[in-house]
Amino acid sequence: MVRIKERYILVQVRCNDKPADESVAISSTTMYHQLCGQVERYYGEFGIASMLHLRVVYFNDKTHLCIIQSRHGPHRFITSILPLITTAGTQMARYRILYVGATVKQCQKFIIKYQQRYINKTIGNYRGEMQKQQLIADVTKMAKL
After folding, report:
1. How many other CB atoms sit within 10 Å of the CB of residue 55?
2. pLDDT band at residue 19, thresholds of 50, 70 and 90?
């Protein structure tokens, strides 16, 4: 018996007209339909037929991160069209592929490392100890949500 191989694509969605700390007004179902529409537009019936196992596994509007599940092989269709998509719902946005992995666990490990690097970079910009403590408190509060 042959195992079905999956690929998980970690994507960062950033709206052009909003600051980085505001949430993105798009849902996972909207993201799914937008991806299917773009695959059909660029790859036709063959592309949309290969997207039978396409699924948005995780979408967090606070951190702007999204994990998309696809089969191994057709995941290249998604990775090639994501930079071409310019809207997120009704807003202008840009999509950045951060990581492509074989398991959700590997994507989660990458998310933790990515967020840790972001926190370290942000904390380095603060001068006072009170600002650093406030940022850490805000991040831990957001992580518990």
Report:
1. 13
2. low
* Residue 116 to residue 143: CA distance in whole angstroms: 12
DSSP 8-state class, residue 115: H
Residue 47: partners with Cβ closer than 8 Å, 6 or more residues away: 39, 40, 74, 77
Candidates 139, 141, 93; CA nearest to 120 is: 139
Residue 103: partners with Cβ closer than 8 Å, 6 or more residues away: 8
Q: Order of strands across the sheet with 91-101?
A: 55-60, 65-71, 6-15, 91-101, 87-88
Q: By the 8 A CB rule, do 65 and 12 touch?
A: yes
Q: Give residue 136's identity as a one-letter amino acid code.
A: I
Mean pLDDT along residues 56-68: 86
